[in-house]
């Protein structure tokens, strides 16, 4: 797995808010997921040993968190961690301790 590095930490480049899900493109993959209540969304990539690499998605437009990660292609294991309000009585369950699957995954 190869990602853009800044100060030793992987980063997502500006991506596109559409299409939703993980979309392989030349040179990497665009990730886009909706959440109107999240304060932050972190993309979590997993290698063959299960080691997790966290990449914050910095771009948020029209309810969609998104970013382009260079060097990531089809077959990459990933999920999301979402930070924000936690109030189950109101239907708000943001909890970065939980790994979420991509609701827009194609396979």
Description:
- The protein is built from no helices and eleven strands.
- By secondary structure, it is an all-beta fold.
- Helices cover 0% and strands 49% of the residues.
- The strands form four sheets. A four-stranded antiparallel β-sheet has the order 3-4-8-7, with no helix packed on it. Strands 6-5-9 form a three-stranded antiparallel β-sheet, with no helix packed on it.
- The chain is globular.
- A hairpin with a 2-residue loop joins strand 1 (4-6) and strand 2 (9-11).
Short overview:
0% of the residues lie in helices and 49% in strands. The chain contains no helices and eleven strands.
Descriptive terms for the model:
disordered N terminus; 4-stranded antiparallel β-sheet; single chain; mainly beta
SSE layout and pairings?
Layout: E1 4-6, E2 9-11, E3 21-25, E4 28-34, E5 40-46, E6 52-57, E7 59-61, E8 64-70, E9 77-83, E10 86-87, E11 92-93
Antiparallel strand pairs: 1-2, 3-4, 4-8, 5-6, 5-9, 7-8, 10-11
Work out the helicity level. Answer: under 10%
Distance, first to last CA:
19 Å
Strand content: over 45%
Q: Helix count, per DSSP?
A: 0
Low-confidence stretches: 1-6
Shape: globular
Look at the helices and sheets and give the structural class.
mainly beta
N to C succession of SSEs: EEEEEEEEEEE
């Amino acid at each position: 797995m190869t990602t853009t590095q800044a100060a030793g930490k992987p980063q997502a480049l500006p991506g596109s808010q559409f299409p939703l899900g993980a979309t392989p493109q030349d040179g990497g993959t665009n990730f886009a997921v909706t959440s109107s209540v999240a304060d932050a969304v972190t993309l979590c990539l997993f290698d063959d040993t299960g080691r997790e690499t966290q990449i914050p998605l910095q771009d948020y437009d029209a309810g969609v968190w998104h970013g382009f990660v260079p060097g990531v292609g089809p077959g990459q294991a990933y999920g999301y961690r979402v930070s924000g309000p936690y109030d189950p009585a109101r239907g708000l369950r943001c909890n970065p301790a939980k790994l979420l699957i991509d609701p827009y995954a194609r396979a």
